[in-house]
Amino acid sequence: MISPQLTDFHIHPDYSIDAKGSIEDYCLVALRKGLKKICFTTHIDLDPRRVEVDPFMRIDAEIKRIEPEFLQRYYDEIKTVQARFRDEGLEVFTGVEIDYFDGVVDIWNDFNSGLKFDYILGSVHCIDGIAFTWSKQALECYNRFPLPILFQKYYQSVIALAKTNLFDCVGHLDGYRKYAADAVGDAINHPPHELLREALTAIKEAGIGIEINSAALRHKTGTTYPSEDILQLAASMQVPVISLGSDAHQPKGLAAGLDISAGYIEKYGLKWRPRL
Ligand SMILES: [Zn+2]
Ligand SMILES: [Zn+2]
Description:
binds zinc ion, alpha/beta, 10 helices, two-stranded antiparallel sheet
């Protein structure tokens, strides 16, 4: 089985409007850093409540409202580089990071014209359509939803996500910590264990698992999403780790923190079950 720190399965190329660097740029950096498998996971944000801010893609250096033909271009571009880099010892996979909301499966199936992505990461970024992962809305999110409500709504979304059968893996579990340090304080690090257990059980029963996402390093909220506490609980419940991800938004961020994430697999005895 591939060693976890040689893989990065959460990467945003410049098709994502908040990212820089072409698919080829990332592949070259991956080779230089000695990675063996990488997967691109551009944002697919289709929540109808967020139609003015979310559903965009960068195409030919312009920000455009996302269209199926743009998704096709993204997919085709990855396919084009695959053969070239495989010869050099790097496997490159097609993936997407789909924002989870109630009703996303039907909207995604209508939108996607039959492209078979290798890997579908499902992430919760919003509470009732308000993004805690976006600097412009995070505060509004913490103000509007007292912590017990925020935890409840977040983990219920994770449970629903797990039950859809669409996703291979849950992205950055406990990602609500991103902008919470000042607004909420340490309480953000202590979601109710009962709720966590319920979410982790749903993930396990769905036959999927979690990623260990090292963007927390960049966000200065510790080292990984989820936190070490949650990883420890996941280990005790035998919830598998499906992937590691840097969540890089520019090539120099590729592979950042993978050594730490891989170290937690060892430290807590987590099950490493890569899909690819
Ligand atoms: Zn995300
Ligand atoms: Zn991401």
